[in-house]
Design brief:
The protein is mainly beta. It is 9% helix and 42% strand.
Length: 230
């Protein structure tokens, strides 16, 4: 998921800015690669989710020539990363003006030796949307706003964000997707994964927390009228 929109930001002093601890009241250390998706592997420690290549030829940056429902697909029956927490916390970098953020969480459907999710495209538009039935609603929380060098005399900002499912995930295969489908960050929730009563009953939001639904894309009636290409 090495999104094109972030590549121009990764220059100059960006790594130096992100590898050090930031914010006066925080001891949080920011990971150094802004193109990755991270999960909380231990208290105060994050690990990058592995990327898996999308095996389909879908290009979401091209203008769609027609309404179409297709699939993004990765090889293999299971992800190599297994998470035990049913409300895992993930960490991503998002360009400052992206609102809502591009990251979404989808459940993957297993088809023999592959996993896939449905992709909806609307004629005359760039981008794509996952099928609503396969999407998982997320809470987004801005942790740090990072100034980075974007060129000679130019400074830009990246938001370092935490994203988390609003409800506990059921066992199965999942992926975090962005605006590009070149690489897909995948994981699996195993059976018997732990959850706490407090997490289920009392989700908390404070400070700069923002509850944001997945980006809307197209008219739902339009999407329902599109026949899937099989």
């Amino acid at each position: 998921m090495k999104r094109k929109v972030l590549l121009f930001l990764l220059c100059g002093s960006v790594l130096t800015a992100m590898e050090k601890s930031v914010a006066q009241n925080s001891l949080r250390t920011i990971p150094g690669d802004a193109t990755r998706v991270y999960y909380e592997s231990a208290p105060d420690r994050v690990t990058a989710l592995p990327f898996e290549p999308n095996t389909t030829s879908l290009d979401p940056f091209a203008i769609a020539r027609k309404d179409k429902v297709s699939y993004a697909e990765v090889k293999g029956a299971n992800s190599a990363t297994v998470l035990s927490d049913r409300r895992p916390r993930f960490y991503v970098f998002v360009a400052d003006k992206m609102d809502p953020p591009p990251h979404q969480l989808v459940r993957l459907n297993s088809q023999k030796n592959t996993r896939r999710f449905t992709v909806v495209r609307i004629k005359g538009r760039k981008g794509y949307s996952p099928l609503e039935a396969e999407s998982v609603r997320l809470d987004y929380r801005i942790l740090e706003r990072l100034p980075v060098a974007g060129g000679r005399g130019v400074f830009m900002y990246l938001n370092y964000m935490e994203i988390q499912p609003r409800a506990p995930l059921t066992p199965g295969e999942y992926a975090i997707i962005g605006d590009s489908l070149l690489d897909i960050a995948t994981f699996r929730i195993q059976s018997g994964a732990a959850q706490t009563l407090i997490e289920v009953m009392l989700p908390q939001h404070s400070g700069r927390d923002r509850a944001i639904g997945p980006p809307s894309f197209g008219n739902p009636q339009e999407i329902l009228s599109i026949r899937a290409d099989r």
